[in-house]
Design goal:
heterodimer; A: 274 residues; mainly alpha; MetI-like fold; 13 helices; 75% helix; 0% strand; B: 304 residues; two-stranded antiparallel ribbon; 2 strands; UgpAE/MalFG_permease (chain B); transport (chain B)
Chain lengths: 274, 304
């Protein structure tokens, strides 16, 4: 690519401006969170005496341990179960290509664009009828179903890319379908699976609509869903509200930075495939 | 020879049948979960939409009355209108800004600076939208950073509580969406530009084309697929926005930022009009499809 020097400089400057604009709201939350809890802070000003203890206060009064535990329970069920179901189905549609598989695929594609808001009213009465309303299961069960279209389409796309000769070789060696699936296909699917796992973790952790509607006690929700509780709790203290919101943001950023490479690849692929 | 074909064909046939059985067994858990929590609620929602029901008492068949109300009630129509206004901020701004930014930045060489900027551009995409809403409410507050900046540059007379003003609340909320989505668009376009054949750029440069011409003749056609994908994702995000609005304005002031998601929530759970809320849910789903399908069509046609 031919790029001359002035273009490089302009590119750098534009990039820096965009980065600053991206960071300002977050920096502004931090600067507010460090002001004395009783104060009404003004704009983006670094406090003379940063009150790091606000985070401790917000952590305790926000019952963050309990919230994290509740979120973790939801994530720990939703993500593995979704991965398992979608891998099995993706293998069936992408590799076994059974009769009627095409129909199943189109049937799932139909679900890709349904907004959760369109289903939330009937879901409420459904989980009420099952008897799990106001428990974590009210979020866990629907989420597994709601993630299926995307997850299966994702895993199918992976299995379609695996050379069929591998399956044939395994069958010639006398492997059953289950053996072939476990010994050959699963190890090969690891990159696709880990990318999907990261996406599902993020979507579940940040899920807001379902917990807000289906679990009345904020402390049994996901942390994101509990933000409404923070808003009520700290309505009179901007520093504590921002401290609480930052505490909820931090785990997602930590996970993001640790898995950054897979994360960006997953999000980009997810965007293209979705 | 002829004798061996028949049994072999039979064996192949039975293997295929076994494959079909195993295939359906493998697909069954996913299908059951999907039918139970997507298809079933979709159908019950459709059923509710033809009744008047308060969620507990007896229900009454009202035909298409609920749908008529969705399309005649000014509040509900207003929320649909607001959702389309949000498309300007969730789709047009991020996609256009992303295209320009990616073109300007495209000389990013791999290295610490480039990977760090990718990380930062992605941050708004990672954090819970609800938390972004809280951060931005504070930016827009009377004593917040936006007004602080305006006074600093001598435009203090424009200062106002941005989310509390009927005129500015909707654009203010929309800009939060622009903030969330511009990074995603930029990074995706940057990856896309990397895949465009560099000789195309060299060719137009040798023809003496300026950057604007290069942008129109090489970059945009080369990013067609990425544009289609991002327009689709961001339109869905605009029409089904909920988290940001819930934590910033809850639809207010008045109904200035009311969107379908919030309307459905309010009608269904605050006003207990389950039938009307369900009808609105179905309408929202159809709206999304009506916007997304033509884009997929266009993208596919232009691929040929």
């Amino acid at each position: 690519m031919i790029v001359n020097k002035s273009e490089v400089v302009i590119g750098r400057i534009v990039l820096v401006i965009v980065l600053v604009l991206t960071l300002i709201p977050l920096a502004n939350m931090l600067s507010a969170a460090l002001q004395p809890a009783g104060d009404n802070p003004t704009g983006l000003t670094w406090p003379a005496h940063p009150q790091w203890s606000n985070f401790v206060t917000a952590f305790d009064t926000g019952h963050v341990w309990q919230l994290m535990g509740s979120s973790l329970l939801i994530v720990v069920v939703v993500v593995p179960v979704s991965l398992l179901f979608s891998t099995l189905a993706g293998y069936a549609l992408g590799n076994l290509r059974m009769r009627g598989g095409r129909f199943v695929f189109i049937f799932l594609i139909l679900g890709l664009t349904i907004p959760f808001e369109a289903l939330i009213i009937p879901l409420y009465y459904q989980v009420q009828a099952i008897g799990v309303l106001n428990t974590q299961w009210a979020v866990i069960l629907p989420l597994i179903g709601l993630y299926m279209p995307f997850s299966v389409v994702w895993m199918r796309a992976h299995f379609i890319g695996v050379p069929r000769e591998l399956s044939e070789a395994a069958r010639v060696d006398g492997a059953t379908t289950l053996q072939e699936f476990r010994r050959i296909q699963l190890p090969l699917a690891r990159p696709a699976l880990s990318a999907l796992a990261i996406l599902l973790f993020l979507w579940t952790w940040n899920q807001f609509l379902l917990p807000v509607v289906l679990i009345s006690d904020p402390l049994s929700r996901t942390v994101a869903g509990a933000l409404t509780f923070f808003q009520g709790q700290y309505s009179s203290s901007i520093p504590l509200l921002n401290a609480g919101a930052l505490i909820i943001i931090v785990p997602t950023i930590v996970v993001f930075i640790v898995f950054q490479r897979q994360f960006i690849r997953a999000l980009l692929q997810g965007a293209v495939k979705g | 020879m002829t004798t061996s074909i028949a049994p072999r064909r039979a064996a192949a046939h039975s293997a295929a049948r076994r494959g079909t059985l195993v295939g359906w067994l493998f697909a069954a858990p996913a299908l059951i979960a999907y039918c139970a929590f997507v298809i079933y609620p979709l159908l019950t929602g459709l059923q509710y939409s033809f009744y008047r029901w308060n969620g507990v008492g007896p229900s009454e068949w009202v035909g298409i009355n609920n749908y008529v109300r969705v399309f005649t009630d000014p509040d509900l129509l207003g929320s649909i209108r607001n959702a389309f206004v949000l498309i300007a901020f969730f789709t047009i701004v991020p996609v256009a800004a992303g295209l320009v930014l990616a073109t300007l930045i495209r000389s990013m060489r791999p290295g610490f600076f480039s990977s760090a900027s990718q990380t930062i551009l992605f941050l708004p995409q990672i954090i819970p939208l609800a938390a972004a809403g809280i951060g931005w409410s504070w930016m827009y507050a009377q004593t917040g950073a936006v007004n602080q900046l305006l006074s600093a540059v001598g435009l203090g007379s424009l200062a106002r509580p941005w989310l509390g003003d009927f005129q500015t609340a909707l654009p203010a909320v929309g800009l939060i969406g622009s903030w969330v989505l511009t990074g995603l668009c930029t990074v995706l376009f940057l990856t896309g530009i990397g895949k465009i054949d560099p000789s195309l750029y060299e060719a137009v440069r040798l023809d003496g084309a300026n950057w604007a011409r290069e942008f129109v003749t090489v970059t945009i056609p080369g990013l067609r697929q990425e544009i289609a994908v991002l327009v689709t994702i961001t339109i869905i995000a605009a029409l089904s926005s909920f988290d940001i609005i819930y934590t910033t304005t809850l639809g207010g002031p008045g109904r200035a930022t009311l969107v379908p998601g919030i309307s459905i929530y309010r009608i269904g759970f605050t006003q207990s009009e389950v039938g009307l809320a369900s009808a609105f849910g179905i309408v929202l789903m159809i709206l999304v499809l009506a916007c997304v399908l033509p884009i997929q069509r266009l993208a596919r046609v232009s691929d040929r």
